[in-house]
Design goal:
Elements (H helix, E strand, L loop, with lengths): L7 H5 L10 E5 L3 H7 L4 H21 L4 E8 L7 H24 L2 E6 L7 H14 L5 E9 L1 H17 L10 H5 L15 E4 L18 E4 L9 H12 L12 H4 L1
Parallel strand pairs: 1-2, 1-5, 2-4, 3-4, 5-6
Helix pairs in contact: 2-3, 3-4, 4-5
InterPro entries: UPP_synth-like, UPP_synth-like_CS, UPP_synth-like_sf
GO molecular function: ditrans,polycis-polyprenyl diphosphate synthase [(2E,6E)-farnesyl diphosphate specific] activity
Keywords: Transferase
Length: 260
């Protein structure tokens, strides 16, 4: 696809099709602080965050991005007040159920990653139903990280490999980085399991235990906007910033003298 085939908003920002990321990850931070600043409840802040996610998903699909992974609820978030935890679980479940038909219409496949044993039964039922309903979709992949942590992901992958060793299906010396990566939750995306760009909102400058293995060479973009305020303009700015970077993956760019 030529640059002239890009949506007008991307062309006006000078974005190039060949430099667009295939997989983006989002740490959707700042819902509670956004609500407090407006005299709203925490629940209303999370509801606003849900609306922002829906808009970002629509833009990502329209712009030809292949996948996004969003950090909806971490294992550490269970330390929050029970009322807020219950609210988040209910909103996540409702969001999945409300969007299933739209995912199907737009060719979006939903994957939910994280520890299923820590999810309420009703949420887990919604997850199974949505994953089954969208499993034949391939236009776009949406990964919802719920009850997830990066350390948990690495541990569960190691346990899978250990079980294969115990069952004499695998020799320990055959385990390498590629094999371990193939057992991580995001491996459902195959060749683009690792995000090209990770965006975190609210001004915090950390990963917070999200996609730790997968983000080894991911470009990071930190926005001062609270998640409910992360809009199309800020998304475009993040993409423009990404396209200005030179990704070397540990290699050194040859000097002009070396290239002659």
């Amino acid at each position: 696809m030529a640059d002239t085939d890009l949506p007008q908003a991307l062309v006006q920002r000078g974005l190039r099709k060949e430099l667009m990321p295939r997989h983006l990850a989002f740490v959707m931070d700042g819902n509670r602080r956004w609500a407090e600043a407006r005299g709203l409840t925490t629940a209303e802040g999370h509801e606003a965050g849900g609306r922002a996610l829906k808009k970002i998903l629509q833009l990502s699909v329209a712009w030809g991005i292949r996948a996004i992974t969003v950090f909806a609820f971490s294992q550490e978030n269970f330390r929050r007040p029970e009322e807020e935890v219950d609210c988040c679980m209910e909103l996540i479940e409702q969001g999945i159920r409300d969007e299933m038909e739209e995912y199907t219409r737009n060719g979006i496949r939903l994957h939910v990653i994280g520890d299923p044993s820590t999810r309420p039964a009703s949420l887990q039922d919604a997850v199974r139903e949505a994953e089954e309903m969208t499993r034949n979709n391939s236009r776009f992949h949406m990964i919802l990280a719920t009850c997830y942590s990066g350390r948990w992901d690495i541990v569960q992958a190691c346990r899978q490999l250990a079980a294969k060793v115990q069952d004499k299906l695998l020799n320990p010396e055959d385990i390498d980085e590629a094999m371990l990566a193939g057992h991580l939750s995001t491996n459902v995306l195959g060749e683009f399991a690792c995000p090209d760009l990770l965006i975190r909102t609210s001004g915090e400058l950390r990963l917070s235990n999200f996609l730790l293995w997968q983000s080894a060479y991911t470009e990071l973009y930190f926005s001062n906007r609270m998640w409910p305020d992360f809009d199309e303009d800020e998304y475009l700015e993040a993409l423009k910033n990404f396209q200005r970077r030179e990704r070397r993956f540990g290699q050194r760019k040859p000097s002009s003298q070396e290239s002659n």
